[in-house]
Specification:
This protein is of the alpha/beta class and about 375 residues long. It contains 13 helices and 14 strands. The strands form two sheets. A nine-stranded mixed β-sheet has the order 6-5-1-9-10-11-12-13-14, sandwiched between helices. The longest helix is centred in the C-terminal third of the chain and has 18 residues.
């Protein structure tokens, strides 16, 4: 699943291809959030020192015990940062030196200050105010508490009026890579995708582009909406080489909506689920990323690669988006699924340990000096 030889080979291939990265053009959207990363207090020892509630299960116990009564939960802010699947993924790709154009909801008419650094390394456009997320982080996962009122402003009418249809079409035409993420929270995304398929895709010329799509935790969306999204994702394959990205939870939910067997949670079982999803949603590649490893399934190319998992991450919010950025970088550079998975897990592994997005040089260094557990 992951060997020193595989890592050395991947580092060598990245080194050989690194000069091509600044020539790549990416167009990514369409969300935007301001994320506040928070810890939950278990015990406060004094004004400055406290013990952190370590797990989601511990928080659940505390909340359950308060039923019918009340309780006080103290949150301690760790940092405030740019958020949303799109900005985090785009920022990570810009850190690789990919030429990134981003369109989303990052403040309107002026950008929110949290996106200022991002706007220095990418071409950034915004048509509405961002959403806001309180991200409660634990050792075993995170709870995202979102305020989504502004997200309905990301629709095809506003996109044309505040950005421009011709400009939008031109951005896709000039891109090597297109990313549409956070379908779940952008409730008009099906309409936007339908418009793109109808008005943009028939006029595209040149080599086939890669299109990455991430639904982003579709549990709260209806069965009908999800099946419609899968139809549209399949339709995009006529015009793009589509990469359909899922985390482990999302793969199970999509599998259930498709009537598939989701009971085998081993790596091999997840690979089999990926094959089944790809049979029903026939795109170029289905990629699934649990926290400790990842799998990718394409025609004639299936791989499972273990990541540099750490039980004590410095940050987890955005880890999946960093995986997606790394995996897509590998695919853009022509790496096979195993190598692309390795660039993905290395990107996310670097990020959760440092709270920073890696450069391509950082990836090569990490691959050559693989971190201990």
């Amino acid at each position: 699943m992951n060997t020193p030889e595989l890592r050395a080979n991947c580092a060598s291939q990245l080194q050989s291809a690194a000069h091509r990265v600044p020539e790549l053009q990416a167009f990514i959207g369409l969300d935007g959030f301001v994320d506040e990363i928070l810890h939950v207090v278990d015990k406060r020892e004094n004004a400055e020192k406290y013990l952190r509630l370590p797990t989601i299960a511990k928080l659940a116990d505390r909340l359950s015990a308060a039923a019918g009564r009340s309780t006080n939960i103290e949150l301690v802010s760790q940092l405030t940062k740019l958020g949303g699947n799109g900005p985090i993924m785009a920022n990570a790709m810009a850190s690789f030196s990919v030429r990134v154009s981003y369109l989303g909801i990052l403040g309107y008419p002026n950008l929110h200050p949290v996106f200022a650094d991002f706007a220095q390394r990418a071409e950034v456009h915004s048509i509405a105010e961002p959403g806001y997320t309180d991200a409660l982080e634990f050792e075993d996962g995170k709870i995202m508490l979102g305020k989504h009122q502004s997200l309905k402003q990301m629709n095809w009418e506003n996109l044309q009026a505040r950005f421009g249809r011709e400009k939008f079409n031109a951005k896709i035409q000039e891109a090597d890579f297109v990313g549409f993420v956070n379908w779940t929270m952008l409730t008009y995304m099906n309409d936007i995708w339908s418009a793109i398929l109808r008005e943009t895709c028939p006029n595209l010329t040149g080599p086939r582009r890669k299109l990455f799509i991430d639904l982003a935790d579709p549990e709260k969306r209806t069965h009908e909406d999800i099946l419609r999204a899968l139809e549209l994702i399949t339709a995009f394959e006529q015009h793009f080489n589509v990469i359909f990205g899922l985390n482990e939870k999302e793969s199970g939910e999509i599998g259930q909506h498709l009537g598939l067997d989701t009971s085998n949670h081993s790596p091999e079982g997840l690979a089999a689920l990926g094959r089944s999803i790809r049979d029903r949603v026939p795109v170029n590649t289905v990629v699934i990323h649990p926290t400790a490893y990842a799998v990718a399934v394409s025609q004639g190319d299936e791989a499972i690669v273990e990541g540099p998992f750490t039980p004590k991450p410095l940050i987890t919010t955005g880890a999946g988006d960093h995986f997606n950025a790394g995996f897509c970088l590998g695919k853009l550079l022509g790496l096979d699924n195993a190598m692309s998975l390795l660039t993905g897990v290395t990107t996310s592994g670097f990020y959760v340990r440092t709270a920073k997005s890696p450069s391509v040089s950082d990836l090569m260094e990490t691959l050559r000096n693989w971190p201990a557990k």
